[in-house]
Amino acid sequence: VFPQCRSAANPGSSLKGNCKGPNVQITGEQLLLLLEKDGWERRGQPATHGVMVSKRFPEERCSRSTVIPIRQHPLNPRVLGAILSVKQTGLGRNALQALIDKYGLT
Length: 106
Prior knowledge:
Layout: H1 28-37, E1 41-47, E2 50-55, E3 64-68, H2 77-84, H3 92-103
Antiparallel strand pairs: 1-2, 2-3
């Protein structure tokens, strides 16, 4: 459960609302492949902390970019939530699920 969410698992939270983190078990490599199929492009050299990807949206002045950690184990739900957030890819978990349904996980 995300710390900003109030639930039975996190009763001490001061914020209200129905927050749910992404409940998908996905590795960084799988997410990277899905984003590339959605039009995101790798930028620069892969680094030890991950791979930078970006995408230009016509309705936005600047392109969006994020770093996808490449690890063998599934991404932490908080990390995945941050990547899918408005500040990074702007996809959200529904769009991620739509990409998984469209392209599948490899």
